[in-house]
Write a structure and sequence with these properties.
Layout (H helix, E strand, L loop, with lengths): L15 H23 L3 H11 L15 H14 L10 E7 L5 E2 L4 E3 H14 L2 E13 L9 E12 L8 H6 L13 E6 L2 H12 L5 E6 L5 E6 L7 H10 L7 E4 L3 H9 L13 H14 L9 E3 L2
Length: 312
């Protein structure tokens, strides 16, 4: 188990504890998928490791959102650059948006990223947001008796400023509006937390860009609102591979966008990463599907279908 690459020029810009958090996320990612790789047929093992970047910890590949080293170094760069915009008199906020209409079956996942991001932009605009937003996916485990099966829940995290003079809604009003749908589970659709210090901004950005290595479950509440909590049900650890398969059909840039004149935040962070090969060869979609089919065969899941991911 190893950490992935470290970005040059970050000495002194990220504290030791934050680098420890990023390193722990790297090791969790590599540990799980190293174990998956060892159980695969030899012919599939090498391309699987290449797909996830397990043998090239300092490499950058923008064309795949599951490439571990790129995700790790991008998290470091975002955490090092964006907190420089921190203003103690006008602190940033951490916003989370969830819409039940984005939810999709883990067996037959269908995700329209342009539509998801446009809905998120519209919502963030109504609360006067300016900053960076990141689309993510979680995997909600369900009881075996649930006819809908396990679910993939895309959502959006955003870090930036809220300008009340440009806002039509408060975050609370947005959560109660019809712009986002809580669905039958009653999940809260919009939440906000103040980030009072630059360190808080850095930690939040590092958290938002790491790959989820925990399955989650929905816990209903008597009040009507539900809560999403982690679960350690080893019975369904193979679902992390299903989530990785979904990410392998997206690009890094498909998951990130900026608003309110903050495009330089993303540009500055990306410029810190090592240059990617100009003509990097990569897997065709049929090759990616063949790799994941072998993974699911190993777990005895032959009924998974190819994810339908719209990116443009």
């Amino acid at each position: 188990m190893r950490n992935f690459g470290r970005v040059m020029g970050l000495s002194g810009r990220l504290d030791h504890s934050l680098m420890g958090v990023i390193g722990a996320a790297d090791r969790s990612f590599s540990s799980h998928f190293e174990d998956v790789a060892e159980r695969l047929p030899v012919a599939v093992r090498r391309p699987f490791r290449e797909l996830l970047g397990l043998d090239a910890p300092n490499s950058v590949y923008w064309g795949s959102a599951i490439h571990g080293p790129t995700s790790s170094m991008l998290a470091q760069a975002l955490a090092a650059t964006i907190p420089c915009n921190h203003d103690a008199d006008n602190p940033m906020h951490f916003i989370t948006l969830i819409d039940s209409r984005w939810q999709t079956s883990a067996k037959r996942p269908v995700i329209n990223l342009p539509a998801l991001k446009q809905r998120a932009r519209d919502c963030l605009k109504t609360i006067g947001f300016a900053g960076i937003a990141i689309a993510e996916t979680d995997l909600l485990t369900c009881p075996l008796s649930d006819p809908d099966g396990d679910q993939i829940l895309p959502h959006v995290h955003a870090v930036g400023f809220l300008d009340q003079s440009r806002a039509r809604y408060s975050v609370e009003q947005l959560a109660q509006s019809r712009m986002l749908d809580e669905g039958e589970r009653g999940i809260r659709t919009a939440t906000a937390a103040v980030l009072p210090t630059a360190d808080d901004v850095a930690r939040t950005l590092a958290y938002s860009r790491k790959h989820s290595m925990h399955l989650k479950r929905f816990v209903p509440r008597q009040s009507g609102d539900g809560e999403i909590l982690r679960t350690n049900r080893t019975r369904q650890l193979h679902l992390l591979s299903r989530l990785a398969q979904v990410y392998s059909h997206m690009r890094q840039k498909d998951l990130l966008f900026t608003m309110g004149g903050c495009s330089s935040w993303l540009t500055e962070a990306c410029d810190m990463l090592p240059p990617a090969p100009r003509r990097a060869s990569w897997f065709a979609r049929r090759e990616i599907d063949a790799i994941w089919n072998e993974v699911h065969e190993h777990y005895g899941r032959r009924t998974y279908y190819r994810p339908r991911i719209t990116t443009r």
